[in-house]
Amino acid sequence: MSQKIELTIDGREISAVPGQTILSAAEEAGVYIPRLCHLKGLTPHGSCRICTVLVNGRPQSACTQPVAPGMLVENDTPKVNGLRRNLLDMLFVEGNHFCMFCEKSGNCELQALAYRFGITAPKYPYMFPQRTLDASHPDILIERNRCILCGRCVRASQELDGKHAFDFIGRGAHKRLHVNAEARLADTDAAVEDRAVAACPVGSLLRKRVGYALPVGRRAYDHQPIGSEISAAAPQG
Ligand code: SF4
Ligand code: FES
């Protein structure tokens, strides 16, 4: 029988197993911790920091931090949500996100988080970066204007598809999603069924010819905020 670890999230006691991350333990207990770069089934990356929680008063990324006995975790508090709002704001201004025209609208995790946190317009100035688009592949489009550099496609390609179709080049503000070819996605072994394509949380990696397939009202986040399915599974009482 595995040893249990007790910790507290927003005043609620939960149990976890050794080695489990805060995010995973919280999710099992029906507590939603917002995330973007994290996707179940991929190695945690800890890059977007949207899952930041306070652990005994100190910021930690919940997707990479293992649980420890007696941890006091703050998650859904004005202070922590304020930090997340700032990060989301920055993601919006650092790219060119045309939500109203985006095929992923209504199914986009970045947009859904903005709705969840009540962001209608970013407070920071837009940077309007120059980004390229790669439409060379017959079935897949890379729209780098919307890429948030979460790395989900990079890890999914390696870990789930057994390929190496995507990677990053450059540093800081010049960091970009690149493909494992001289220049074009069409020259890689990427295929439309790859898990990497479906792993993109925003409208950056898209399957061609399926845009706007779901009408407004039937899209993933039309009725309930992102994360509702996790909190709905919380034990009552
Ligand atoms: S293309 Fe999508 S999955 Fe890949 S790094 Fe950019 S936002 Fe993340
Ligand atoms: S979800 Fe944890 S750092 Fe991105």
Number of strands: 10
The rounded Rg comes to 19 Å
Describe the biggest sheet?
5 strands, mixed
User: How far is the first residue's CA from the last residue's CA?
Assistant: 27 Å
What compounds are bound to the protein? iron/sulfur cluster, FE2/S2 (inorganic) cluster
Structural class: alpha+beta
Q: Could you give the order of the helices and strands? A: EEHEEEHHEEHEEHEH
Percent strand equals 15-25%
Number of helices: 6
Strand order of the largest sheet: 2-1-5-3-4
Q: Which of globular, elongated, flat, extended, rod-shaped describes the shape?
A: globular
* Mean pLDDT over all positions: 96
Structure in words:
The protein is of the alpha+beta class and 237 residues long. It has six helices and ten strands, in the order ββαβββααββαββαβα. Strand 6 and strand 7 form a beta hairpin. It is globular and about 50 Å long. The protein starts with a strand and ends in a 5-residue tail after the last helix. The mean pLDDT is 96. Bound molecules: iron/sulfur cluster and FE2/S2 (inorganic) cluster. The site of iron/sulfur cluster has 13 residues, from helix 4.
List key phrases describing it:
5-stranded mixed sheet; 237 residues; alpha+beta; 3-stranded antiparallel sheet; binds FE2/S2 (inorganic) cluster; binds iron/sulfur cluster; globular; 21% helix
